């Protein structure tokens, strides 16, 4: 049985906007979507409107949740949104540090976060000068493999996954632009 996975990168975040100009980490922890990011999401919604997804999986990072809700709030599959942290972004910058499930529940009351650990992002190792514990690449690669297996074991055949550039690069071999959709067959 072939599974079709639509990997959808989040819209532009405030971190992305700053980094494109300055090439420095602006310390936007768990960055939100920028104004351009919200417009990108609104434009991308037309591309998924008529796709009969059986499951929608979103990263718990705020920019991914905002993208997911912007794309799927009025979609027939909106009730099938599931928050999972296995495909969170590679933790390399401030924007990749998450927030507690309680804080996320307050901001996004229609989604379930109670299955997440209090700290669900990478935390093993020494913090750098920014106070960030950078995730080693081998940990990311292992997580990508676990996520691919998780998808393969799911009963659904058509799944939307809203996530992040570096993670999707390791999953698909492609660099995705903000709100770009890449198809992965499993």
Can you tell me about this structure?
Helices cover 35% and strands 13% of the residues. It is of the alpha/beta class and 186 residues long. A five-stranded mixed β-sheet has the order 3-2-4-1-5. α3 (62-72) links the parallel β2 (55-58) and β3 (81-83). The protein is globular.
Summary, kept brief:
This protein is an alpha/beta fold and 186 residues long. 35% of the residues lie in helices and 13% in strands.
Pick out its properties.
alpha/beta, five-stranded mixed beta sheet, 6 helices, 35% helix, 13% strand, globular
Write the topology of this structure.
Blueprint: E1 4-9, H1 14-22, H2 35-48, E2 55-58, H3 62-72, E3 81-83, H4 101-107, H5 137-153, E4 158-163, H6 165-172, E5 181-185
Parallel strand pairs: 1-4, 2-3, 2-4
Antiparallel strand pairs: 1-5
Helix pairs in contact: 2-3
């Amino acid at each position: 049985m072939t599974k079709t996975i639509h990997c959808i990168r989040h819209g532009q975040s405030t971190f992305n906007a700053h980094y494109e100009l300055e090439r420095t980490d602006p310390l936007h922890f768990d960055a939100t979507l920028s104004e351009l990011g919200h417009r990108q999401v609104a434009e991308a919604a037309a591309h998924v409107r008529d796709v009969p997804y059986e499951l929608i999986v979103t990263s718990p990072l705020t920019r991914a949740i905002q993208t997911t809700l912007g794309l799927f709030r009025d979609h027939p599959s909106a009730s099938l949104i599931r928050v999972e942290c296995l495909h969170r972004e590679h933790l390399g910058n401030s924007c990749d540090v998450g927030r507690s499930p309680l804080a996320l529940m307050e901001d996004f009351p229609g989604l379930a976060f109670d299955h997440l650990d209090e700290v669900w992002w990478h935390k093993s190792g020494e913090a750098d000068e920014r106070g960030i514990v950078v995730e080693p690449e081998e940990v990311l690669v292992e997580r990508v493999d676990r996520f691919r297996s998780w998808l393969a074991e799911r009963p659904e055949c058509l799944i939307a996954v809203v996530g992040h550039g570096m993670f999707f690069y390791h999953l698909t071999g492609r660099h995705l632009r903000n709100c770009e959709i890449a198809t992965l067959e499993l």
